[in-house]
């Protein structure tokens, strides 16, 4: 039997009455990314084995998927296939169930209808190949946890006891590689709570990439960032997606900052769900139908679409920051 293990990066697995991976319980409220693993010692060798067995298999596949919370159907009819190296956005107003879709992919919430497969396997059976960055509220400025420490906890934060010979050296080398990848070398030695929102997001993305995942799930990583940082983080995620052949699914409320980088869109709205390329989905007719109110899509001077007049639907369930 495969034992599923969810490890809060920066925190590790929670134990009753004790600290987590040597981290004091007072840090237990720190927001962080999740490294989701299966098996006792998830590692790079297992991920490579999985990659060998899943060549040509969609990273994520949803067929007629539907979800319900509290007896209320929140979305249905979701059909989507995500391939390696694709950058896919899950879009829609607050309360429509965007984060719920990520939870369904991870097997944390059973579907009310339809099927979902992750690397050809049922939900929860391939989570060791997933890097997950959940929604966050902010970091406490008082703990002295450095950016390097945060990334390191994504590398081996779930492992107990003394490291094997050479393991510490390899882990430190992996942390340096990740910090360089996200362009955080100039501030990774500083306490995380003293960094800007954009700097923190880069380090959290590095943490989500620590185990060389096949799929990265990002839940509103642009939330609360200013426009320059939104553009920078979106460009960073796109570069990682293309160069590393990593599939990325990003939840976003505002499509405009990420629209130039997207391959496909899953748009959830009060009027249903639509999946396709941005050109197919981001149209006035389609969005007006989904929102059940007029929405206008304009083109910039260089031909890029921009969504304007996008209404805010009332929340229908406690999806945001749900545990």
What is the secondary structure topology, with strand pairs?
Layout: E1 4-8, E2 34-38, H1 44-53, E3 60-69, E4 72-82, E5 87-91, H2 98-106, E6 113-118, E7 130-133, H3 147-156, H4 167-181, H5 197-208, E8 215-219, H6 227-244, E9 247-252, E10 264-269, E11 272-276, H7 278-281, H8 284-291, E12 296-299, E13 305-308
Parallel strand pairs: 5-9, 5-10, 7-8, 8-9
Antiparallel strand pairs: 1-2, 2-7, 3-4, 3-6, 10-11, 12-13
Description:
This protein is α/β, with parallel strands linked by helices. The chain has a single domain (4-308), classed as Rossmann fold, CATH 3.40.50. It has eight helices and 13 strands. Strands 1-2-7-8-9-5-10-11 form an eight-stranded mixed beta sheet, with helices on both faces. α3 crosses α4 (167-181), α3 packs parallel to α5 and α5 (197-208) packs parallel to α6. The protein is globular. The two termini are 25 Å apart.
Write out key terms for the chains shown.
alpha/beta, Rossmann fold, 8-stranded mixed sheet, 3-stranded antiparallel sheet, 8 helices
Structural class determined from secondary elements: alpha/beta
Number of domains: 1
Corresponding CATH superfamily:
P-loop containing nucleotide triphosphate hydrolases
Count of extended strands: 13
**Strand percentage, roughly?**
15-25%
Tell me the strand order in the biggest sheet: 1-2-7-8-9-5-10-11
Shape: globular
| Separation, N- and C-terminal Cα atoms | 25 Å
Mean pLDDT: 79
Largest sheet: 8 strands, mixed
Instruction: Give the helix level as a range of percent.
Output: 25-40%
CATH topology: Rossmann fold
Count every helix, treating DSSP H or I runs of 4 or more residues as helices. Answer: 8
Name given to the CATH architecture? 3-Layer(aba) Sandwich
CATH class: Alpha Beta
In N-to-C order, the SSE pattern is EEHEEEHEEHHHEHEEEHHEE
C-alpha Rg (nearest Å)? 19 Å
List the uncertain runs: 1-46, 313-323
């Amino acid at each position: 039997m495969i034992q599923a293990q969810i490890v809060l990066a920066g925190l590790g697995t929670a134990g009753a009455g004790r600290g987590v991976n040597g981290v004091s319980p007072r840090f237990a409220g720190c927001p962080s990314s999740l490294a989701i693993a299966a098996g006792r010692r998830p590692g790079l060798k297992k991920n490579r084995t999985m990659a060998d067995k899943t060549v040509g298999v969609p990273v994520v596949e949803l067929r007629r998927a539907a979800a319900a919370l509290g007896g209320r159907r929140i979305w249905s009819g979701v059909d989507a296939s995500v391939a390696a190296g694709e950058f896919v956005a899950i879009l829609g107003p607050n309360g429509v169930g965007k984060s719920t879709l990520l939870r369904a992919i991870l097997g944390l919430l059973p579907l009310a209808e339809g099927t979902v497969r992750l690397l050809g396997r049922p939900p929860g059976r391939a989570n060791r190949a997933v890097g997950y960055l959940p929604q966050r509220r902010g970091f406490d400025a008082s703990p002295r946890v450095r950016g390097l420490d945060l990334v390191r906890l994504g590398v081996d934060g779930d492992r107990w006891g003394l490291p094997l010979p050479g393991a510490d050296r390899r882990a430190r080398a992996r942390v340096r590689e990740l910090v360089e990848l996200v362009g955080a070398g100039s501030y990774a030695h500083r306490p995380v709570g003293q960094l800007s929102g954009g700097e923190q997001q880069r380090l959290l993305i590095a943490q989500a990439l620590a185990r060389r995942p096949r799929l990265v799930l990002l839940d509103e990583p642009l939330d609360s960032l200013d426009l320059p940082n939104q553009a920078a983080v979106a460009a960073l995620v796109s570069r990682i997606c293309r160069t590393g052949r990593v599939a990325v699914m990003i939840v976003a409320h505002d499509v405009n900052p990420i629209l130039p980088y997207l391959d496909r869109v899953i748009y959830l709205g009060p009027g249903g769900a639509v999946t396709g390329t941005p050109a197919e989905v981001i149209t006035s007719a389609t969005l007006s139908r989904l929102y059940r109110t007029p929405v206008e899509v304009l083109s910039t001077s260089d031909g890029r679409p921009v969504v304007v007049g996008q209404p805010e639907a009332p929340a229908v369930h406690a999806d945001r920051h749900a545990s």
